[in-house]
Amino acid sequence: MIALWIFLGRPAARSFVLAMTLSVLSSLLGIALLGLSGWFLAAAAAAGASGASYAFNHLYPSTGVRTIAVGRVASRYAEQLVGHEATLEVSAAIRPLVFERIARAELGLAALPARDLAVIVDDVGAVEGGFLRVVSPAFGVGAAVLVAIGWVAAVSALASMAVLILFAVACVGAPYLLLRRARAAAVSLASEQGVLRSDLTGVVENAIELDVSGVLGAAMTGVNDRLTAGLQAQDRLQAPFRDTAALIGLAGGLAALLVIAWAIAMHADGAIAAGASLATLAAFEAASAAARVLDAGAQASASARRLLERLQDAKSTYGGDTVLQSALPLKLDQVLVGVGSARRVGPVSLLCGPGDLVELSGRSGVGKSTVLEAIAALRPICAGSLTYGGIEQETVRPASVLARVAIAPQIPSFLPGSLREQLVYGRPDASDEDISAALAMVCMTDVVVGRGPDDASVYSGGEQRRLGVARALIADPELLLLDEPFAGLEVDLSQRIRVNLARWVGEGRRAIVFTGHQVGPDWAGSPVRRIKWPD
After folding, report:
1. Which of 82, 81, 79 lies closest to 30 in space, CA to CA?
2. Which of 100, 116, 201, 255 is deepest in the core (most CB within 10 A)?
3. Mean pLDDT of the chain
4. Which residue from 60, 22, 11, 15 is spatially nearest to 40, judged by alpha carbons?
5. Nearest to 151, CA basis, from 288, 269, 238
6. Mean pLDDT, residues 454-468 taken together
7. Across-strand partners of 260?
8. Which domains can be identified in the chain, with CATH numbers?
């Protein structure tokens, strides 16, 4: 976890130091409270038994007990407050970075796999909990032990050495060995949880198809069995730590009895011995409580290592710092675009200037959508040359391209929210007139008026595709990229949309590049430059 924290730039360093300091203070006050209480009770009892209770000043120790109790509550509250604030600061640093790196690794418009989303949810959550549940309490336990050893040393130096050795064996050695053994199990469990999350997401997303096929019940039974197995694996990971915590508690009781026995044998002060015994018992109890959650430390360590590897191995950002003044003319010269680690699509060459309509046609699966994603700076090219206004893609800032280029995918994605919110993502300041004009261009005005401002889920697949085109139009790009925009549309409806889009191109310095499976008709007399995909 420390290596990951350093990689992130040491966020919330002061807050972490303050939280650990408060944890130490809280533990010191807790041990001091028990020790002083034990001494007070024993000393008061001894004074009463000797008939000297009238001479025993109970005001100072009782005031000390109350003061320490208040201080302990205040320090514990402050520790929780500062610790959570520090954890939130780390979360604010790591979550956007992890999402950005994983998103860049998944080039193009493909959704993040459920397994990668699980990294954000599970691994980041484990790392965040590692500090509050493991690191900070460990400092407190260490401080508690030091105070307890100091109390015992007031009884006997040899007794303090014996308690220290017992603590080292029971509270340090055994948990350390458990942590080493648990790391592999934690890594395996996290991997299995990621696969299970991915499979469960697949079942939920395809529930209707599975139900129609009559296999939904079997699929859910399989997922339930694996969930049960995962819970059992989690319990197996936690069980040794629970057992160790119980043994530490027993060791604490043994150490407390050892202190009392040693005090009796050495004829030491009974009040000090009572305080030392309670302080020792409290220190071991604190260690026992910490040991119960050490499985979180194993999982946090494994998660931090996995996150650090993902962040370090993530693909570097492509593109440069040049800001485009114009995306046109667009030129592709023998461009190859990568898909995965082995496949390359292309080569493709095309030229598109203001007022142009360019159709890229070819059979399904040859890579037309991938080329559109490369034009939109969503993928780097592997070979050839791609220029915007004469500037090479590798020197251009990708955000500068996206400011002038809009893409409407074949299967658009819509987030929860009203239809208006969905349509203005690319241009939040768009007016109602802009939205109405875009809907009219894709012949969706009557449909939207009839359905109302609900979210996009109430529309069919073909209607969502047209809404995706409208969303791209509202962004007011110079270059509009359309992936299979007319697939599945009636001939008359398709032709009306073509006429509208051709008029839109002619109204300004604009161009459209679109894909299709076969060469389509003219756009109401507007010339279309057609490029057939090489077979």
Report:
1. 79
2. 255
3. 80
4. 60
5. 269
6. 79
7. none
8. 2-313 (1.20.1560.10), 330-532 (3.40.50.300)
